[in-house]
Amino acid sequence: MTDDIELTLTATPGPAAVAHVTGEIDLHTAPGLRTRALELIDQGHHQLILDLSGVGYCDSAGLSALIGIWHGAQAVGGSLTLAAVPDRLMRMLTLTGVDSLLPHYPSTADALNAHQGAPNTV
Question: Which of 6, 12, 47, 107 is the most buried (most CB within 10 A)?
């Protein structure tokens, strides 16, 4: 496990913002991911899409961070959408039922298309 996680914001047309997550989301990095994502939401990126294609590992602390980010987005009338979720993490989301809470798409393009069709939905 590493102590680094990277969150890179990409400008997009429309209300959604895409943040690419790179690294391992674990007990050491999950708090930083949550903090950075909530900062993006506080800066006005209320329709946040997390591209998780660069995530090699995610444990229960990471799952908790994703739920916390979702709560933060909901608190301001926004949404959290996941894109390009790695298979292992998708299995965890499915087993815990979180997949029914967090919208997820096979790619960032698919997630953006969904937001353009219905930008104010979760």
Answer: 47
* 88: exposed, middle or buried (Cβ count in 10 Å: 0-12, 13-18, 19+): exposed
Q: Is the model's pLDDT at 67 over the cut of 60?
A: yes
Strands 47-58 vs 16-25: parallel, antiparallel or unpaired: parallel
- The string of pLDDT tens digits covering residues 8-33 is 998 776 678 999 999 999 999 999 99
CA angle 59, 32, 34 (to 5 degrees): 75
pTM for the whole structure: 0.90
5-10/16-25 β-pairing: antiparallel
Nearest to 67 by CA among 78, 83, 80, 85: 80
* C-alpha–C-alpha distance, residues 72 and 52, integer Å: 18
Length reported for the chain: 122
- Identify which has the larger pLDDT, 24 or 117: 24
